[in-house]
Amino acid sequence: MMNRFLLIFSFIGIALMTSAQNASEILDKAAQAYEQSQGIKANFSLHTSIPQQGVSESFEGTIQMRDDKFKLETPDMITWYDGSTQWAYVARTEEVNVSTPGGEELQFTNPAVLLRSYKKGFKATYRGTSTTRQAKSAYDIVLTPKGKSDIRTIEVQVEKVTGFPASFTITDKNDAIYSIHIRDWQTKVNQPDSFFTFNESDYPDAEVVDLR
Questions:
Q1: CA angle at residue 175 from 26 to 54, to 5 degrees?
Q2: Quick one: three-class SS letters along the chain?
Q3: Listed residue (158, 159, 149) closest to 123, CA to CA
Q4: Fewer CB in a 10 Å sphere around the end CB: N or C, the chain?
Q5: Cα separation of 92 and 158, whole Å?
Q6: Contacts of residue 188, Cβ cutoff 8 Å, sequence gap at least 6
Q7: pLDDT given for residue 17 in this prediction
Q8: How many angstroms separate the Cα of 86 from the Cα of each of 1, 4, 93, 138, 181?
Q9: Please, are residues 175 and 27 in contact by the beta-carbon 8 Å criterion?
């Protein structure tokens, strides 16, 4: 579930600051916009629905991204990624899992990598317009995997006027749905490199589990 959750945020940059009606143009411009954003911060709400397991839950969180780095905060977990190493801190167990994502896994956890390589893995289709929860007009893009994948579709909704993404919805092959709605955005949030790394002194009681 974590990879799918982070994948949603990989598409935060995809829809950023674009208004073209051609899906590929939107994604290509978004990749450039992400590279030039000088850091992004977004507050969001996420709803997960897994019918087979009878799961339906919602929570809020914050993500900050710069270049190929990110920090993701939710009520139960904080995840840092500095471009090579990932730390996932679970508050309930006071455990930190350390890993080094690579290959396909990196595409699901690293927004910059996915932005640069989406054409290899997904087909982008422009589906028209819709209205957001805030009653704003938006463009709709649907992404479908080109090859074998646990993901069935990714739907992206982009506000026409501002060019900012309003929502993302991932549906997997088992009909589980992960939907995120962006409450607000900030750009030019240029955090230092240390912001995207786990600092052991801030969590003295945490058990570090090195999975590398």
A1: 130
A2: CHHHHHHHHHHHHHCCCCCCCCHHHHHHHHHHHHHCCCCEEEEEEEEEEEHHHCEEEEEEEEEEEECCEEEEECCCEEEEECCCCEEEEECCCCEEEEECCCCHHHHHHCHHHHHHHHHHHEEEEEEEEEECCCCCEEEEEEEEECCCCCEEEEEEEEECCCCCEEEEEEEECCCCEEEEEEEEEEECCCCCHHHHCCCHHHCCCCEEEECC
A3: 149
A4: C
A5: 35
A6: 37, 38, 39
A7: 41
A8: 16, 16, 18, 34, 25
A9: no
> Which residue reads 């030039």 in tokens?
36
List CB contacts of 54: < 8 A, sequence separation 6 or more: none
**pLDDT tens digits in sequence order for the chain, 212 residues long:** 555 555 555 555 554 444 345 776 766 665 666 666 778 888 888 888 998 888 898 989 898 888 778 898 988 899 999 988 999 999 999 999 999 876 556 555 555 555 555 566 778 788 888 998 878 888 888 888 888 888 888 888 877 776 667 788 889 888 999 888 888 878 888 899 999 999 999 999 999 999 98
Structural tokens at position 29:
């411009």
At position 3, the amino acid (one-letter code) is N
Q: Which two tokens stand for residue 92?
A: 């309930």
Q: For residues 133 and 207, give the distance between their C-alpha atoms in angstroms, rounded to a whole number.
A: 41
Under 8 Å between Cβ of 136 and 166? yes
> From CA 99, how far away is CA 116, in angstroms rounded?
22
